């Protein structure tokens, strides 16, 4: 069998690094390429044969079900389990286990709600089945692995260790990292302690390895991006529009731009680099927008120049204002002739008068 019929999707994080995008919206529901990011993950799981998905929610949990309902519009059966207290990745997996119907030896797909990936899910399931593993992990290679957990494997792909965020050159024994998607043998999930916080990366996996369990790694070096920062989120959305990151859920053809119905774009405005213009947004004459996300009902006034930035829902960007690597919160008002660069974030509802800012920030 090369399909996992059930999946757990971990969507409980607060998205702290993504604020102000996540002040009103949980991270997986922030729009990427015109739809909530979570839609892309659900659609890819469905395309790989998954039929039943349990969402492990916590922060702003009430937002998910009204949008996705029972999942039937995506061809899925979706259920929701909300943590009252944050339980960590392992605790969240164990907490939703009662919703699963798979037999003890059947594969269950588990993935994080903030990873954009081209992973071949069926290939991961096949690798898991053929190797007879208890847990299989998607691994990817990165140039600088210091911010990640390293997962060295032997010649057969069997995991030999878990090394959390190495700092010295001696500790960097591999460029393979845990990419945040797993196949668990159903019975293994029940061995995770219940009712308390558990980190799957720091406790569950090392504990399984120490007990002699078979953990298998599959290196898949297709597209992979952790959407934990605003810059990464904007890039991920653009890559979905450009077709660099595959998703059956992009609402339109891949290309340089994605303009949603009811948006209004001036004929001479230039949209490039995978730019998304949300429903009801207005782009003024002469505006130039590259690799950016303009969320619903935002207004970009004439001759503004926006690069690699995100403009929140209902925000307004004044004429001739320059944004580069900026994040503008929902409903913020940025007056004309401002220049905001280098990771600067403007909070939801904030107001910047015309010509008031000509600085950059590395925050």
From TrEMBL:
Q: List UniProt keywords, sorted A-Z.
A: Transferase
- Any one GO MF annotation of this record: transferase activity
The Nucleotidyl transferase domain covers: 7-239
Q: Does the keyword Metal-binding apply?
A: no
Annotated Mannose-1-phosphate guanyltransferase C-terminal domain ranges read 255-336
Q: Report the family membership.
A: Belongs to the transferase hexapeptide repeat family.
Q: Which PANTHER family match?
A: SUGAR-1-PHOSPHATE GUANYL TRANSFERASE
Q: What is this protein called?
A: Sugar-phosphate nucleotidyl transferase
């Amino acid at each position: 069998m090369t399909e996992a019929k059930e999946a757990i999707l971990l969507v409980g994080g607060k998205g702290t690094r993504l604020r102000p995008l996540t002040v009103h919206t949980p991270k997986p529901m922030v729009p990427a390429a015109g739809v909530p990011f979570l839609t892309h993950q659900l659609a890819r799981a469905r395309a790989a044969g998954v039929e039943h998905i349990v969402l492990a929610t916590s922060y702003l949990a009430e937002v998910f079900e009204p949008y996705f309902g029972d999942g039937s519009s995506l061809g899925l059966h979706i259920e929701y389990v909300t943590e009252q207290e944050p339980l960590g990745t392992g605790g969240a997996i164990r907490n939703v286990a009662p919703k699963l119907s798979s037999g003890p030896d059947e594969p269950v797909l588990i993935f994080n709600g903030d990873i954009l990936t081209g992973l071949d899910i069926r290939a991961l399931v096949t690798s898991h089945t053929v190797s007879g593993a208890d847990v299989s992990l998607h691994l990817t290679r990165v140039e600088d692995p210091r911010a990640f957990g390293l997962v060295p494997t032997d010649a057969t792909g069997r995991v030999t260790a878990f090394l959390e965020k190495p700092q010295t050159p001696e500790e960097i024994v591999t460029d393979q990292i845990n990419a945040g998607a797993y196949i668990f043998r159903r019975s293994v999930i029940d061995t995770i302690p219940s009712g308390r916080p558990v980190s799957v990366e720091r406790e569950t996996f090392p504990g399984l390895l120490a007990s002699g369990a078979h953990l298998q790694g599959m290196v898949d070096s297709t597209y992979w991006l952790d959407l934990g920062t605003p810059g990464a989120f904007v890039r991920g959305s653009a890559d979905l529009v450009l077709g660099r990151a595959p998703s059956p859920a992009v609402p339109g053809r891949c290309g340089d731009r994605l303009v949603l119905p009811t948006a209004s774009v001036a004929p001479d405005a230039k949209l490039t680099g995978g730019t998304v213009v949300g429903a009801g947004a207005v782009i003024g004459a002469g505006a130039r927008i590259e690799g950016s996300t303009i969320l619903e009902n935002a207004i970009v006034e004439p001759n503004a120049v926006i690069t690699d930035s995100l403009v929140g829902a209902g925000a307004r960007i004044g004429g001739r204002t320059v944004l580069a690597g900026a994040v503008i919160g929902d409903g913020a008002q940025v007056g004309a002739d401002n220049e905001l660069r280098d990771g600067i974030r403007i909070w939801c509802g904030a107001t910047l008068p015309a010509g008031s800012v000509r600085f950059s920030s590395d925050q």
